[in-house]
Amino acid sequence: xxxxxxxxxxxxxxxxxxxxxxxxxxxxxxxxxxxxxxxxxxxxxxxxxxxxxxxxxxxxxxxxxxxxxxxxxxxxxxxxxxxxxxxxxxxxxxxxxxxxxxxxxxxxxxxxxxxxxxxxxxxxxxxxxxxxxxxxxxxxxxxxxxxxxxxxxxxxxxxxxxxxxxxxxxxxxxxxxxxxxxxxxxxxxxxxxxxxxxxxxxxxxxxxxxxxxxxxxxxxxxxxxxxxxxxxxxxxxxxxxxxxxxxxxxxxxxxxxxxxxxxxxxxxxxxxxxxxxxxxxxxxxxxxxxxxxxxxxxxxxxxxxxxxxxxxxxxxxxxxxxxxxxxxxxxxxxx
Amino acid sequence: xxxxxxxxxxxxxxxxxxxxxxxxxxxxxxxxxxxxxxxxxxxxxxxxxxxxxxxxxxxxxxxxxxxxxxxxxxxxxxxxxxxxxxxxxxxxxxxxxxxxxxxxxxxxxxxxxxxxxxxxxxxxxxxxxxxxxxxxxxxxxxxxxxxxxxxxxxxxxxxxxxxxxxxxxxxxxxxxxxxxxxxxxxxxxxxxxxxxxxxxxxxxxxxxxxxxxxxxxxxxxxxxxxxxxxxxxxxxxxxxxxxxxxxxxxxxxxxxxxxxxxxxxxxxxxxxxxxxxxxxxxxxxxxxxxxxxxxxxxxxxxxxxxxxxxxxxxxxxxxxxxxxxxxxxxxxxxx
Lengths: 335, 335
Description:
The structure is a homodimer.
Chain A: E1 11-16, H1 25-33, E2 38-43, H2 58-63, E3 68-71, H3 82-93, E4 97-100, H4 110-119, E5 123-125, E6 144-150, H5 157-170, E7 175-178, H6 182-188, H7 202-209, E8 218-221, H8 233-243, E9 247-252, H9 269-280, E10 288-294, H10 301-315, E11 319-320, H11 328-334
Parallel strand pairs in A: 1-2, 1-3, 3-4, 4-5, 6-8, 6-9, 7-8, 9-10, 10-11
């Protein structure tokens, strides 16, 4: 198996001509979770966003030791306009790798591919893993694992996992964040976009990403999708079986009525807990729910806090909003 | 989306130098289920198998109207020895397509790729779908659908689906077999190897394969793997969600203790019924189990029939062995 690629920091964050925080959310994620890896920002004329890093030219970035230009914005339509290709070639010529979470593959652009070959630098398309994974074995591995699961896509699984990982490191607990989606991979510099893996190998890719570890080491794993999502449940189940978590956290957005991009109703928390336990036992016989992470951004502070208290009583599990309350109650309970 | 490829019959079944029925099981499957599509067999010197079709040279096959040479055997190790490449090039030169369910991609062999380009014939690698599928929508489609699911891999899901499909056609019911694995695709000439689809698109590939149909038309769908299989459950769940079956049949091999290729214990029938119903409701709210298909080949006739009667009482569902009893009791019950 080809080693899982690692993106080398420090990063220069390329913002293109992003007009708002949504278009540049990848860059904001990197600055939030890995500030010490982010050396500067590169903005094209007309860019309407400032992520608070020093503006750097590609030459300045190379001189200051930057190793990778990360595409930190989503171009409209997902394609790569010619105006962005020129600075990317300059970056390769200056000795930088390029990392991208776009759907379009950098390596499919002939000019970029030629420049990468000429300079010996890497085009790291995190949505297009190049590793060949083996079929999963289902064998138990040493070490402890916690997975964030969800009632839907985009409910805070990555955020919750990163927050728990940070909380463990602050306490001096040995822990590794395991990224399973493109933004998580760019933040961490390492990981596999699980939804881009061929179905036969998805659980195997999860096994490869979370190998046997010291018995008191924690892998904190970003989950994907939802076991009840009509389009993405296969990814959720491959992640669950392959990572074989001891514990899971259910992430939920309480104001949502239907699941992302489909008309199916949102499953409830109890249903996701039960399904995750039932299915998870195939590879982790003692799997259990260790808490709830509620994204209350669409509620006011009082309503959010009341809901969290109510759910905590109802499920008899630690319940948090990682932004409003932090994740300490969950970490405190499972350690 | 690229149209799902169709393999054109009649077929010449290439047996290479297969030494036994196991090595040639694909060819035996084609002759069993689609005898009128199979015109002849092509055997290399030393071949130890006879599937009962006329021996034909490639020239004779082309003259008698054969459209496709199907690789009906598994070469040891899965690679394609040079001795097999020469007749394959002759087949392309004679105007035949070639269809293969091998892991190795015919199109990756430079001599074959060159010959296919020169002759304008197709190399159809059914394990390597070339279609680009969309993400699933989860929307309900008209028509009726039945899916075979299993407690494990290789318990009779394909066989049961083919048998139910045949029984429906005998009764004059409009029905289409939907193949989801390489042998099923070669038998039917049409289908998608679901385990070879990128995870993000697996439910979408199932939706594409089973479009809206007349309200009384049945799609009879070959399932894959098992929802509790540590390596392949993601494929099983993508198939379940995308095909949105109204009915499912649980296939089971009662003497097996552990699941294929792993040490995990075999799940029981009740567990698979409950999980299939729970998860299946995401796209098919009224999904229900319509019967059990028990592969009793490893029991003697009396023990097999007793077990079938016992399970029928226990679950209050029609229970068959498609070989010992036929599938009529299931078809009779659900029509």
